[in-house]
Amino acid sequence: MVVKSIKEKSSSFFLYFCSKGFKKPASPQQGTKGNAVSSEQKPPGGWKAMPFILGNETFERFATIGLLSNFMVYLMKKFNMDQVSASNVLNIWSGVSNFAPLIGAFISDAYVGRFATIAVASVASFMGMLTITLTAWIPQLQPPQCPAEQQLHGHCISPSKAQLGVLLTGLGLLSIGTGGIRPCSIPFGIDQFDPTTEEGAKGINSFFNWYYTTFTLVILLTLTLVVYIQDSVSWVLGLGIPTLLMAASIVLFLIGTRIYVHVKPQGSIFSSIAQVFVAAYNKRHLKLPAEGQEFGVFYDPPLKEYVLSKLPLTYQFRFLNKAAITTKNDLEDDGSPKKWWLCSIQDVEEVKCLIRIIPIWASGIISFTAMAQQGTFTLSQALKMNRHLGPKFQIPAGSMGVISMLTIGIFLPVYDRIMVPSLRKITKHEGGITLLQRIGIGNFFSILAMVAAGVFEQKRRNSATLHPGAAPISVFWLSPQLILMGFCEAFNILGQIEFFNKQFPEHMRSIANSLIFCSWAGSSYLSSIVVNVVHHVTGGHGHPDWLTNDINAGRLDYFYYILAVMSAFNFLYFLYVAHRYRYKGQARIEPKSEPDVELSSM
User: So where does this one cross the membrane (predicted)?
Assistant: First the structure.
């Protein structure tokens, strides 16, 4: 599960960096429309606010990742769940948590602002972690402990409805916290600087550097120290330390209240998207003008001040163009359009950008489903393998995700500094290869990863049958599938982030951020469906199902092959939709003032 948490958070970081690092937002001091500050009109908090914000960020990430990094093992050992049930709990919870940022972003943007959203969400996260820690501390909140042999054959006492209710309450509170913290944390840090000044621009760059530095340290500590404490010392201590750090993050965050810049809610982009569909439906009986005869027919006002790219009128999804047709009663007395009846060409084309991207986005769900297995069945494999380094030290199963992270960390600099320049000479493309090609390569690696997982699981299972009890095969036989999955993530996830970032208008990139999280949510639900179907359909006639609790008796390798076949069909689907995809057109609008500001070519 930690691998998914890390990828989801890193997705948020990279996407926000791309969308904000080159943009010219309004100064917090200026109080411009759409980016107004509080009534106090105080100057940006700048680096005075950073110890509190970065401290909160570091402790919060350490807490949540540290809590969930080994959670599959916790559910199996402490709640006597079989691997299918534990996988379902994690997948369903992950799906809820990844849809939650959509709601959190809407509430923050439209109603309460980022500070209040983060504050309330942090309290919810703390309560959730405290609840889960109590399930490890108080014996009455977990079923009776079960010997490993009985657990292997499914003879353990299952958790009661009350015990399961407490656990799910804790996970629900964590989802609320995730929904508020994830979409707001990085933007709130950027709010503290004035990007129109040289000092503010440098501060933003330094903020990202410090953010990623602390992020990397958190990954190393959670995948090693915290997981080791949970596995080898105490679950209470291993869960209690992240919980206490979460409490510290709240205190640290609130201490800086008087220093922060509090940006007022700007309204949500989701309402303008809905208006296009409603307006197009309301005018469904109108006839569109012939191509080349559009002048004066469509509503095309000057762009809003925060919009940098003017999108030209296109004829794909032409029915939506009806939303921009001007009729007699569409304008108010002051010349503004009536809501739900008239939208600008820009509004319509922005919605088309979203529609065009959905087929590409959908291809990521199955690819992410393959990645999701790192936090579930890969852990089950690791628990059955020889994890010793020397006579005394044993690698925690939850630490195996480090292999994927190291693959990404080593490969990305090589790709950026060596492979891209070489490919650029051949393809004459700025990025060496197109973004859709990069995503496609990631999808192909997901096939290879699942095939490798099936092959080496078959090797592990055969070894286990020759050596009953504990399989003598080394846990590092899992490295090939984890390395391949690292390549899949390096190409696919980062490729999708950059693709969404470039294909969405600048002010719609919060939706791009949400799409990445929704991909993870969809993959979690799809993974849960596939697991349950395989669990119930296979087996019978005296034979255990493929995903039985004793994986030595099951056929986990067949499950991996099913995912490989699904990934192969997904790859073919991606090739089809990528071939039909049409990139957005745009006319860059230079700002009327401050021409020395560098704009992104994205």
Answer: 88-108, 114-138, 210-229, 235-255, 354-373, 393-415, 435-456, 476-494, 515-538, 558-578
- Taking a C-beta distance cutoff of 8 angstroms, is the pair 180, 117 a contact? yes
Q: DSSP character for 37?
A: B
Cβ neighbours for 20, distance < 8 A, ≥ 6 positions apart: 187, 190, 204
Domains of the chain: 43-266 (1.20.1250.20), 267-342 (no CATH), 351-583 (1.20.1250.20)
Q: Which helix (H) or strand (E) holds 50?
A: helix 50-68
Distance between CA atoms of residues 527 and 370, nearest Å: 8
* pTM for the whole structure: 0.75
In angstroms, the CA 5 to CA 431 distance is 28
Q: Which of 509, 585, 511, 499 is nearest to 309 (CA)?
A: 585
Asked if pLDDT for residue 199 goes beyond 70, the answer is yes
Cα–Cα–Cα angle for 150, 153, 157, nearest 5°? 55
Q: Buried b vs exposed e over 449-463: b needs ≥16 C-beta within 10 Å? A: bbbbbbbbbbebbeb
Q: What is the CA 73 to chain-centroid distance, rounded?
A: 23
311: Cβ contacts below 8 Å, ≥ 6 apart = 345, 346, 349, 350, 353, 505, 584, 585, 586, 587
Per the rule left: phi > 0, alpha: psi between -120 and 50, beta: everything else, 68 is alpha
Structure-token match 């399930």, residue found: 135
The CA distance from 399 to 132, in Å, is 21
**pLDDT tens digits for range 310-347:** 888 888 888 999 999 988 888 887 778 888 899 988 88
Tens-digit pLDDT profile for residues 559-568: 999 999 999 9
In the chain, % of residues over pLDDT 90: 26
Under 8 Å CB-to-CB from 569, ≥6 apart: which residues?
none
Tell me what the mean pLDDT of segment 548-568 comes to. Answer: 91
What is the residue type of 566? Answer: M
What are the structure tokens assigned to 75, written together? 């559910």
Q: What residues does 389 pair with on adjacent strands?
A: 393
Which of 133, 153, 328 has its CA nearest to residue 237?
Answer: 133
Do 355 and 515 meet the contact criterion of CB atoms below 8 Å apart?
A: no
Helix, strand, or coil here: 331?
A: strand
Tokens of 299: 């509503």
Q: Angle 235-255/50-68 helices, nearest 10 degrees? A: 160
CA–CA separation, 508 and 354 (whole Å): 9
* Number of other residues whose CB lies within 10 A of the CB of residue 465: 10
Q: Are 269 and 514 in contact (CB under 8 A)?
A: no
DSSP state of 182: T
The residue with tokens 């999108």 is 311
Give the list of residues 6+ apart from residue 96 with CB closer than 8 angstroms, or none.
172, 175, 521
Closest CA to 237 of 250, 227, 252: 227
Distance CA(316)–CA(588), nearest Å, equals 21
